[in-house]
Amino acid sequence: MPRPRRPRSPFATGWPLFRTRKTTPTGHDSRVQADQQDVSRPRRRPAGGRALYAWFLVLAVCIVTRLLLGRTTESYLVVVAPYMLVSIVVPVLILAGTLRHRPPHRAGWLALAAAQALYAVGDGMTVFDDWLGQFLEPTPADVVYFAYYVFAVTAILTFIRRRTPGWDLPSAVDALILSCSAGLLTWVYLVQPLTSDSELPLAAKLTQSAYPVLDLMLLILAVRLAMGAGTRGPVLHLLLTSLVLMFGADLLYAVLGAVSGEATSAAWLDAVWMASLGALGAAALHPGIRTFDRRTDTAIPDASPGRLVLLAVAVLMAPAVQMIEHLRGTDVSVPLASAACAVMFLLVLARMAGLVSTQRRAAVTDGLTGLYNRRAFEEALAAECRRASRHGYEVGLLIIDVDHFKRVNDTYGHPAGDRMLREVADRLRANARADSVVGRYGGEEFVILTPHAAPATLRDFAERIRTGVAGLPVQADDNVLLGVTVSVGAATGTTPTDLLRVADAALYEAKAAGRNRSVLSTT
After folding, report:
1. Measured between alpha carbons, how far is 130 from 8 in angstroms, rounded to an integer?
2. For 295-333, where are the alpha helices, taking DSSP H only?
């Protein structure tokens, strides 16, 4: 019996310490002169934009030509020539875009270029097999395609790790929920029909079943890439568009082949694959690849309506498939459906636990610095003072104020001020004691609670905090480094209101004495 060919996969396819600024030989700011030159001459369209428009034009011509040739009686090699042209050009475009735009981390793009080069070689070998009419599987082209998947997975994993350092468990759980749903569909409608065909040799069954599984693996990684943190923009959208088109075309190719029992080579399927390849090439040509793997400080909404709808559809997929197959008179295996439902139920419970944990953490955490917020710190201070009163020890409190912070905001803008606050928070955490509680009390004011603090110990601790913050400058922007210092007021006691009042008075004394110093109140 004729067998469907494998799917093609395109994606798987202080005040300023020192400042650095470029100047001209005459001493004028080069950026000012550049702005004046921009006014006097017309702006040119970036070369990356011209290359993108040219590529889209070539792609459109190739797709239209492939569709038109599909209605003619031209030879097979002529008919598939536009498709092969796109397949061969895409890895060249990825390499050219990487070399031209020079992203800070090129490993992912180079792995993607290698993957697409292998894919083009596999396409060429497949076309040659189709031309000769030899379909015995596995073929040498299958080996090349499988190698392609290795490099494609490496590229996507590299992008994920660069864009989202750490595990980012919420996005990982979401991807697993969607992958379980997609895996059930893949098994029921693709893998099971192929493996149940008694006329196919075992090697052919394994080869044809491997492609849906590998595509599913790439889908899981793409979902993880889309749902994780990182910069959003045209490059991400083009990559995801490429994957969606590829996965949809592969799915239709496999389903149509399984239904008809013979090879499927419709021109419109080739057109969809070409569009998928085109989106991949456009992503590499876009200048946005320079910042594609840069982690953003803006978190993706953890429970947005769109994400919840997507997860709800995925969870309901298992009972829906079971009902559809029951109505068709071909019931799905009970162990398979039960296992899928159980796994997704447990994943949803894990997701709910993560949401609850995130909400609790948000209620006690300052959004900018990640330290305790004022309300949470005051609760911790009250609880520690109660314990100190019962057990007879003193609590130490530091109030820290960033010196001349308003000047930073007024001169360099609020982004520079936010960057300074985050850096100060990191230095406070690094220099605090293990049993200390560090919080942001408001604006540029921070607080540190430390139990079992005698006055002499607290004085040394306050000085360590002050020198630890002032150790290195902070980068305000790409060309400016700012020195940062803090004033520290310290007090010991067992009453929250008295501690705050006395430490605040000590802070005022430190600022009145010239700032960049620590004062321990003796009252």
Report:
1. 14
2. 305-327
**Helix residue spans in 301-434 (DSSP H):** 305-327, 334-364, 374-391, 405-412, 414-431
Calpha distance 371→446 (Å, rounded): 9
Selecting from 1.10.579.10, 3.40.50.300, 3.30.70.1520, 3.30.70.270, what CATH number does the domain 374-520 have?
3.30.70.270
pLDDT recorded at residue 16: 39
Q: Which helix (H) or strand (E) holds 445?
A: strand 445-451
Residue reference for tokens 């005459």 = 26
Domain spans in the chain, listed from the N-terminal domain onward: 1-11+51-164+230-292, 374-520
**Count of all residues that appear for the chain in the document:** 523
Q: Which residues are catalytic?
A: 444
Task: Tell me the residue type at 249.
Answer: A
Name the packing angle between helices 81-101 and 107-132 (round to 10°).
Answer: 170
b/e 414-444 (16+ beta carbons within 10 angstroms → b): eebbebbbbbbbebbeebbbeebbbbbbeeb
Model confidence over 310-336: pLDDT tens digits?
Answer: 778 888 877 887 787 777 777 777 777
C-alpha Rg value of the chain to the nearest Å: 31
pTM: 0.58
d(CA 12, CA 450): 53
For 25-63, the three-class secondary structure string (H helix, E strand, C coil) is CCCCEHHHHHHHHHHHCCCCCCHHHHHHHHHHHHHHHHH
- Model pLDDT for residues 465-502, shown as the tens digit of each residue: 999 999 888 887 777 888 999 999 999 999 999 999 99
- Tokens 């919840």 locate to 308
Contact 200, 194 (CB under 8 A): yes
Nearest to 490 by CA among 461, 469, 467: 461
Biggest distance spanned by C-alpha atoms of the chain: 99
